[in-house]
Amino acid sequence: MAEMLAYLDKNSPIHRLAGATKLLCFILWSLAAMLTYDTRILVFMLVIGLTLFKLSKIRWKEVSFVVLLFGLFLLLNNIAIFLFSPKQGVEIYGTEHLLFSLAGPYEVTTEQLFYLFNVTLKYFTVIPIALLFILTTNPSEFASSFHRIGISYRITYAISITLRYIPDIQRDYRNIALSKQARGNDLSRKASLITRGKNAMGIIIPLIFVSLNRIEAISNVMDLRGFGKKKTRTWYWEKPFDIGDYLAISLIAILFISSIVITFYDGQRFYNPFE
């Protein structure tokens, strides 16, 4: 079973970029996606993001579960937006094309659907690049890349340990689950949903204790080695910039500047096809 959000060592142009390069590109990409509501820019960025994902040689089955979780969260987010602000699209675009009415004040309009489409597009524009940054960057280089742009190494090391710990939690969960099943706790699809839920809950307490033991061991090792005593530190894993890094940063910077110019050239963030 593939581990979620774990570093995948592959030979691709994305993997060969320095961690600091991927971090800077991810920040610029995310800012561009967050600042714009121009559908044309978001669609273009989505196509570029999917192309980069293809170049990374990461397979769909290695990220499918994470993407499905994001999709579920996004569905709930869109439902919440409609429940709490069913006229948001009408207020933004200044027109109202009614499709059909629901109970009370809830009316489905073309403007609201278009606004929710743009919200969805923004998420799916960022998700591939976020996954690329996490899955193609070695955790040690991940920490050094943050430190390289001026963030305290204490913070970067905490983030690095967190990323390293995610696969460990998944392995511990599977090992405990297999032990429980060997003792007769059925977690397969043959058991009812309620039974599977109860048996799965029995894994949580052992998992917590295993995690606490690992945290204590890591903390003791860091204290014994004097972690945090000095203001700076060196890194075992750090890539120098080469031509590919400078090219990647330049292209993303051009994309970022272009998206800002196109988004705000008429004084507003929203592309309005209803005018």
TrEMBL record:
Where it sits in the cell: the answer is: Membrane
Q: Where are the transmembrane segments?
A: 26-53, 65-84, 113-135, 199-215, 246-265
Family annotation (CDD domains): EcfT
User: Any idea what this protein is called?
Assistant: Energy-coupling factor transporter transmembrane component T
The record's listing under PANTHER family reads: ABC TRANSPORTER PERMEASE, PROTEIN ABCI12, CHLOROPLASTIC
Q: What superkingdom does the record give?
A: Bacteria
Q: Main location per UniProt? A: membrane
Q: Which UniProt keywords apply?
A: Membrane, Transmembrane, Transmembrane helix
Q: State the annotated membrane topology for this chain.
A: Multi-pass membrane protein
